[in-house]
Write a structure and sequence with these properties.
Strand content: under 5%
Largest sheet: none
Distance between the termini: 59 Å
Shape: elongated
Oligomer: single chain
Number of strands: 0
């Protein structure tokens, strides 16, 4: 059996009204937070990947600008 741990999270005062509204609407705060964090992780990983590969991407784009796409010869149009 997996044991779930609970942790106290400190929030800014202005957030408490939002939390109360969420509770009234029976919104699963844990699920919302998890989903939001996963989205943020993906966004940050994408930004990092793009930054780490910026030179390579630019190089391929320059090559394609001068020589066409790698698959141009396969397209009938």
């Amino acid at each position: 059996m997996t044991m779930l741990s609970r942790r106290v999270i400190r929030l800014a005062d202005e957030v408490h009204g939002v939390l109360e509204e969420a509770r009234k609407l029976k919104i699963n705060l844990s699920a919302v937070l998890t989903e939001a964090l996963l989205e943020k992780f993906c966004e940050k990983r994408r930004e990092t990947w793009l930054q780490e590969n910026k030179e390579s991407i630019e190089s391929v784009n320059q090559w394609a600008d001068g020589n066409g796409s790698f698959s141009d010869f396969q397209r009938p149009f």
